[in-house]
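tokens incoming
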């Protein structure tokens, strides 16, 4: 019994102290299924039930359930949710419910995702019970989670946070004009050459600002040791690189980002406007650089002599400060 985290040495229920845990970006995805009759599914599709707007109502209920998790589950911590998404997939005789919850904090959001699925499913049952009281909510389960000391967990196993490919890097250029071919990219090749000179095998991609979040996630899926982005760090309405980066980081490196800004301020006051971030995501080091040649030059000057040491630390080697 002592191996269960919510029981003390005497077997009594307790709230786990998470005060010493690292603050990381955390996500969890859960699913469940409402099984009903095919004719009920068609009524749901066509808003033909006595209680209309079935899916919209269940979606709102699921989101509200996630927000109320700590009030419903006695030993759960109240946490600040940054996002809750509830989706439905209708098939011949069932509705698949998928909920994804996100936060940045010291404890996970598994229960929030599971609660969202359960409450959304119960709401679906309430909406269809007039025509099918035998509908069944089943297979509510956690499918995956990220963040914390375990890194990325799925039902198929655990992906270690540092399972990256050594000496590999991705350079991601956020430039709508560059992606369209109307402007030559002069920053990506500079970063690529610098990384190759440091012994990295480099993949370079130029994407529109609107696609930087997808491109960053795709790059992370290849598990490189390093991702360096350039562009999209300013205050233009289309600049989205810091937001895309913040969504995937599990640990930030504010000192690196500030050092890059400070370096830029020695030559141009507009360097203070950069919102670039630095940090790690599942063992990959990510650094945002500005989209100008001068900004890239300043950023690489800071990373020179520091990046290899940082990569070694993240991988579990090197000296620790």
């Amino acid at each position: 019994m002592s191996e269960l985290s919510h029981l003390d040495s005497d077997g009594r229920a307790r709230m786990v102290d998470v005060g010493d845990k690292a603050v990381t970006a955390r996500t969890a995805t859960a699913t469940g299924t409402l099984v009903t009759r095919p004719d009920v599914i068609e009524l749901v599709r066509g808003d033909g039930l006595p209680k209309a707007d079935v899916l919209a109502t269940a979606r709102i209920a699921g989101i509200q359930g996630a927000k109320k998790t700590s009030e419903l589950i006695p030993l759960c911590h109240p946490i600040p949710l940054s996002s809750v998404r509830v989706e439905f997939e209708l098939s011949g005789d069932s509705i698949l419910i998928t909920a994804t919850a996100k936060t940045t904090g010291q404890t996970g959001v598994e229960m929030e995702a599971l609660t969202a699925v359960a409450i959304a499913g119960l709401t679906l049952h309430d909406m269809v019970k007039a025509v099918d009281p035998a509908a069944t909510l089943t297979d509510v389960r956690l499918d995956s989670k990220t963040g914390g000391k375990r890194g990325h967990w799925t039902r198929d196993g655990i992906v270690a946070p540092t399972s990256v490919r050594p000496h590999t890097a991705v350079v991601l250029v956020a430039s709508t004009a560059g992606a369209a071919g109307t402007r030559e990219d002069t920053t990506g090749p500079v970063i690529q050459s610098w990384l190759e000179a440091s012994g990295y095998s480099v993949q370079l991609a130029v994407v529109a600002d609107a696609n930087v979040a997808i491109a960053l996630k795709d790059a992370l899926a290849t598990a490189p040791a390093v991702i360096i982005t350039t562009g999209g760090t300013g205050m233009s309405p289309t600049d989205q690189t810091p937001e895309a980066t913040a969504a995937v980081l599990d640990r930030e490196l504010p000192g690196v980002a500030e050092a890059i800004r400070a370096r830029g301020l020695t030559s141009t006051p507009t360097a203070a406007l950069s919102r670039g971030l630095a940090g790690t995501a599942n063992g990959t080091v990510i650094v945002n650089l500005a989209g100008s040649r001068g900004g890239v030059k300043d950023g690489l000057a800071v990373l020179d002599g520091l990046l290899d040491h940082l990569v070694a630390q993240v991988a579990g080697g090197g000296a620790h400060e």
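note: The chain has a mean pLDDT of 88.
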